[in-house]
Amino acid sequence: MTDARTVRSAGTREAIMAAAERLYAEHGLVAVSNRQISEAAGQGNVAAVGYHFGTRADLVRAIMGKHSGAIEEIRQRMVEETRGSEEVRAWVACLVRPATEHLATLGVPSWYARFAVQVMTDPVLRAIVTDEALTREPLRETLHGLGGCLDALPAEVRAERGDMARQLITHTCAERERALAEGTSTRQPSWDDTAGALTDAITGLLLAPVTRRSPAKEVRT
């Protein structure tokens, strides 16, 4: 009896996560209620989301964690092949390709990339997800390896370009996912080609010259 109940509970959690991922991706986090998620997951009890996950943040964590586990397995493999490299492009590929390789396995339509964009535009959830991501050793080693190749850049420039790179990866993947779901044309013929284009662009971004900044002008009141 206990085993059967456990299996049913696990199936319900999976259904809720799948429904929430799709609805959040299509409509945004704020616009979707727990009732809508429960109904989309085929649950007669409108409190099913709260019962199985607690808060919305907990549900988002569970969805992100499910995908992040698969992504970090791919990243670990790439890091082992890249360890010791002093080439920026090699470490950038360790940032980009795990996500695109995972997205390629999800079929069409998929919703994870668009869901991730919605999460990253929410300041509270973005902080939670980012902090948790930085606890994963493959990503930490990737960032360390990349940072070691960019010692010549001022710290504030590295941080700013890192933010730009994250936005570029997240939104480019989301736009490709949306185009595939809608059956419209895509910029690249495959996720592999998308990864190559992103790796080229981010490598160029990180290695671009730094313009000397003018000192801030004093504001008189």
Automatic annotation (TrEMBL):
Residues 16-63 form the HTH tetR-type domain. Signal peptide: none annotated. Pfam families: TetR_N. Keywords: DNA-binding, Transcription, Transcription regulation. InterPro entries: Homeodomain-like_sf, HTH-type_TetR-like_transc_reg, HTH_TetR. PANTHER family: HTH-TYPE TRANSCRIPTIONAL REGULATOR BETI (PTHR30055:SF234), HTH-TYPE TRANSCRIPTIONAL REGULATOR RUTR (PTHR30055). This is TetR/AcrR family transcriptional regulator.
